[in-house]
Sequence to fold (180 residues):
Amino acid sequence: YSFYYYYNAAHQENSRVKYEDSEPHLIKAQQMAEGFDQKKLVLTERIRFHRLKFNTETALNLALELDSLCCSVNRIDNSACNVLIEIYTELKEYEKALPYYERLSKQYNDASNLICEAMFLEMKLNRSEEAIAICEILLSRIPEDHMKQYPIGISPHAETILHIGEIFWHANKPKEAKFY
Fold:
């Protein structure tokens, strides 16, 4: 049998919640994996399997292995970041999750990842100054007169502005929050 036979069998078993048959197929597929794409594919499915089975420690180790694999091949492949953030947050190991937020924010440099990073800093780590610094970056990207073009609540920046207000509120800065 080939890599794809074992991988597809495991994927179908995970999808049908037949977990007991899945792991042996995944291990066999991982042993047969050739090249980055196959290794990444099977590691991702193994992580999914262990997350579904609530095997957090094993999922964490596999996610770290995936992250190491991705970084060794391609410096900007952050495929494991989201699952590492989720796992570390579940484990309440917030400091360990922060570098993965930072990597995503740098890679995509978009409002949603920066908002998540700022909210995470403020709400989980109680680091208001850093969260507010990120808010200032976000605010600098929004044109000052953007509200003139849109009715209230319709601005494409409305969600960003709402989250900035939340961050100021959590940082105990109600005066700043009321403007957002």
